[in-house]
Amino acid sequence: MTREFSAGNYRFIPSVFQYSAGAAADDGYEIERVRFDRLVPLAEGFALAAKFIQEAGRPLTAFCACELRSPAAFSEEGFRAFNLHYVKTLSEWGIFDGTTNPVARSNVCPEIDPPSEPSFYAFSFTRPTRSTAPSFVIAGGAEAREGSGTYVERTVRYRDLSPEGLREKVRFTTTSQMENRMAAFGYGWKDTTGVQAYSVHDFHHALVDELVRRGALRSGLTWHFARPPVVDLEYEMDCRRVMREIVI
């Protein structure tokens, strides 16, 4: 279920052309996460990330994950158009080969005070380490099943915002998205150092059974009041094990 991206010193879970489902550092390497103190427009964010990575003595192919913020949820057609634009830089960096993309990604839409254009929130890259601890980033996943078909066809409890509908969305995202993706690398919740959730709905009633009892909140939960990137998706998560994180 995983493939090696040797140019970046990490392996990844193949997914769709715009992102992978997760990235994990190879032995002898770790992932460092860099968060911007303010949202940075996409082009500027790529430029700053390139500068930071190169000053750390790493090739641009070490770029392995990013967290983006968009002005509003996209239609399916609009999301594809954005993604075709996004991968151009990854192609220039020697990461995206036109078919396979090893970079994990989250891309959500703040409900209050959103950016005026797609922007960077954070990025991650690999660097050498003497530590033997695992290091990984799992891409954002929402309540849409993998496979062909439209989001309408693949979304769990489509447009159901009832308490039980939201609970099932949280359950699906926790298990079928986050847990399955971590398992592909041989990891689980006990290995995470950070978990983030994205929703504008109150999902507190689902926290204990669907997250706490599963061990997902061993390091707490960061809740962003934001929507997933596609219209009518209501809940998204991502998680990571990253020992080195900074804010610039």
List its traits:
248 residues, alpha+beta, seven-stranded mixed beta sheet, globular
Strand numbers in spatial order across the main sheet: 1-2-3-8-12-9-10
Low-confidence stretches: none
Give the helix proportion (percent range). 25-40%
Average pLDDT level: 96
Count of runs of 4 or more consecutive helical residues = 5
What is the global morphology?
globular
CATH homologous superfamily title: RutC-like
Looking at CATH, which topology would you report?
60s Ribosomal Protein L30, Chain: A
Short characterization:
The chain is of the alpha+beta class. It is 27% helix and 30% strand.
Characterization of this structure:
The chain has a single domain, classed as 60s Ribosomal Protein L30, Chain: A. Helices cover 27% and strands 30% of the residues. The protein has five helices and 13 strands. A seven-stranded mixed beta sheet has the order 1-2-3-8-12-9-10, covered by helices on one side. A six-stranded mixed beta sheet has the order 11-6-5-7-4-13, with helices on one face. Strand 9, helix 5 (204-212) and strand 10 (222-224) form a beta-alpha-beta unit. Helix 4 (163-185) packs parallel to helix 5 (204-212). The protein is globular. The termini are far apart.
Protein topology:
Elements: E1 3-5, E2 10-12, E3 22-25, E4 29-41, H1 42-55, E5 63-69, H2 76-92, E6 104-110, E7 119-128, E8 136-142, H3 151-154, H4 163-185, E9 194-198, H5 204-212, E10 222-224, E11 226-227, E12 236-241, E13 244-247
Helix pairs in contact: 4-5
